[in-house]
Design goal:
- This protein is an alpha/beta fold.
- It folds into 3 domains: about 5-215, no CATH class; about 220-425, Rossmann fold (3-Layer(aba) Sandwich), CATH 3.40.50.300; about 435-585, P-loop containing nucleotide triphosphate hydrolases (Rossmann fold, 3-Layer(aba) Sandwich).
- The protein is built from 20 helices and 21 strands.
- The strands form 5 sheets. A 6-stranded mixed β-sheet has the order 1-2-3-4-7-8, sandwiched between helices.
- α8 (about 290-305) packs antiparallel against α9 (about 305-315).
- The protein is elongated, with a radius of gyration of 29 Å.
């Protein structure tokens, strides 16, 4: 099997590229095949792309432009039409030639230009016969591959045939060209591959992975579709599921369906960042509010001024303002204003399930929580972190902070009592993370069967790393190393987030910024907060709960503190593709 880079092809790639990809997989083991290779410095365009670049040791390098269309026309005036698309002025050979010369220029600039072997280009017509393709001055007949070359046992031979013809052509037309038997050899093939991967694959893979990730997650699973179908017959649902099972996606779709039926729909969440994400998913016409912002808005609407919202934005409030003063004021205002909404959606309800919050929502709903259409999602078993650990985050050691003398009702019990008659359903498919990340998350909490299936596919890249440290200095070195590694992979600074169980000033990232002598590889790349997308985002696990990022580094993890295990579960499940955990261990014997 040839080495394919990247190792998989996206579902949304053209069918011809799928066919060529499948055929070339069966090339010899020492062949390297790049698919959809981005070319940042193109000889004739601002940005270019090669459908396939095949590095065949002992034969040469072939750049291939794939055309999947059932018809190709040329009007005799320099214009081409592929299928039913508009006319264009570039032939498939011109497209492949531009990529070929860009690659040659790049390799020569790095001292790895071709010596004694051909780098040439071809067009592969996956639905047509080259016998019907008219001859032209801009190409040779042997530069055409067609549907008959797609058989797995024929594809490598078609590549070799084309490269042999290209070598003979170069010998006839270029003075000084001489074919050297066995070139490119193993060492030169490895050198070409090393150069093309960091220069081109980074741009390719970041784009390709992001597109594939969005496509995979945006397509509802059969499990999710079943739940959404139930909404029509039973508008009062409680949907439970572990992190990454798609609860937020189905909540947004349930909200859209309620709004489309003419209901005034309110979507409630707990934190600010997931509020923004859900507003984006729901679209216009649906009010999405975090619970404290909603209560402040109700207070101000009743009072006719913006005092509560200004106070909320400032953060300068007395300790019990969020859970006592604001809910009391909001309930009083809501009772006087009367019901404002016909339908309610609550995402991650384990964070909102306090009696005083539910009192306000009850007053704002036509029919109240007992009769109104309600769609609730939650992970009541593993993601109850705000109430359980809010006091711990600022504590010096956290000992005993998650213990209570009298066990209050659990969030699930509170929801079931306050919102009776809910039909209960469960999501168990992992739609967010790679299987390796999901398995780590499941093993972390001792539930290997947490997920029934995985939507994402595993690749041959390591998804999870776990490193230990004993001092902050050692942790910062590990953190800088991890950042360096991840950014050398197919991830950008915007796709990486650093999370900690602690607030900013106690976190490793906060410590790095507060100490100018820290490794510049780290400090020069850190943004100002969890919102600063121009550089690496960083903040607490609490802040990022409910969201996701392609790559996540978890710092300051200390499993000797019991509550850190819950936080590690929440933080680790934010990573869709790459996870690094930095864990503190004692150096005592």
């Amino acid at each position: 099997m040839a080495r394919m880079i990247p190792p998989t092809i996206g579902d949304d790639a053209p069918p011809g590229e799928h066919a060529v990809f499948a055929a070339l997989q069966h090339a010899p083991d020492d062949w390297v095949v790049f698919h959809s290779l981005e070319i940042a410095h193109h000889v004739s365009q601002v940005q270019g792309e090669a459908d396939f670049v095949v590095v065949a040791p002992g034969h040469g390098v072939l750049v291939i432009e794939v055309k999947s269309h059932e018809s190709i026309e040329a009007d005799g005036e320099g214009r081409w039409r592929y299928g039913k698309r508009d006319w264009v002025t570039r032939s498939p050979f011109e497209q492949a030639s531009g990529a070929q010369h860009s690659i040659i220029d790049f390799l020569e600039s790095r001292g790895a230009g071709p010596v004694g072997y051909p780098i040439f280009h071809a067009a592969w017509l996956t639905q047509l016969s080259r016998a019907k393709f008219a001859a032209g001055i801009g190409w040779h007949e042997w530069q055409l591959l067609d549907a008959t070359d797609l058989a797995a046992d024929k594809a490598p031979g078609a590549i070799i045939r084309t490269l042999n013809k290209a070598s003979a052509h170069l010998a006839e037309t270029i003075s000084g060209y001489r074919r050297v038997e066995g070139q490119p050899d193993k060492a030169h093939t490895e050198r070409i591959t090393e150069l093309l991967i960091p220069r081109f694959q980074l741009e390719l893979s970041a784009k390709e992975l992001a597109r594939r990730r969005e496509h995979e997650q945006a397509t509802f699973t059969a499990e999710q579709v079943k739940i959404l179908d139930v909404v029509g017959s039973n508008p009062r649902l409680l949907v439970e599921g572990p992190a990454g099972s798609g609860k937020t996606w189905v909540a947004a779709e349930a909200a859209r369906r309620a709004a489309e039926s003419g209901k005034r729909t309110l979507v409630v969440v707990f934190n600010r960042l997931i509020e923004a994400r859900l507003a984006e998913l729901c679209g216009e016409g649906i009010e999405v509010r975090r619970i404290h912002s909603l209560m402040a808005q109700v207070v101000d609407r009743h009072a006719g001024k913006n005092e509560a919202q200004r106070k909320l934005a400032s953060g300068r409030v007395e300790p019990d303002w969020y859970d006592v003063t604001l809910p009391e004021q909001a309930l009083e205002a809501a009772l006087e204003l009367g019901p404002q909404y016909d339908s309610l959606v609550v995402d991650e309800a384990q964070d909102v399930a306090l009696e005083q919050y539910l009192d306000v929502l009850d007053a704002l709903l036509v029919g109240g929580l007992e009769r109104a259409p309600v769609f609730i999602t939650g992970d009541f078993d593993h993601q109850v972190i705000y109430r359980r650990h809010s006091a711990v985050e600022g504590a010096a050691d956290g000992a005993g902070a998650d213990e209570a003398p009298d066990a209050p009702p659990t969030p699930r019990e509170t929801i079931q009592r306050r919102v009776p008659g809910l039909m209960q359903l469960r999501l168990t498919s992992n739609v967010r993370t790679t299987p390796e990340v999901a398995r780590f998350v499941a093993e972390l909490i001792g539930e290997p069967t947490l997920y029934s299936e995985h939507r994402r596919s595993d690749d041959d890249q390591v998804s999870v790393e776990r490193h230990t440290f004993t001092t902050m200095h050692e942790q910062l070195r590990l953190l800088a190393d991890a950042v360096e590694r991840i950014l050398s992979e197919p991830f950008t600074v915007r796709e990486l987030v650093i999370l900690s169980p602690y607030a900013r000033e106690r976190s490793a990232a906060g410590h790095a910024l507060a100490n100018p002598a820290t490794d510049a590889r780290l400090t020069s790349r850190l943004g100002t907060s969890i919102d600063d997308a121009t550089r690496i985002r960083w903040g607490s696990i609490h802040e990022f709960k409910g969201l996701e990022a392609p790559a996540v580094i978890l710092t300051d993890v200390d499993l000797s503190k019991g509550y850190h295990r819950d936080l590690l579960y929440v933080g680790a499940s934010r990573a869709t593709d790459r996870l690094v955990v930095l864990e503190s261990v004692s150096d005592a014997p």
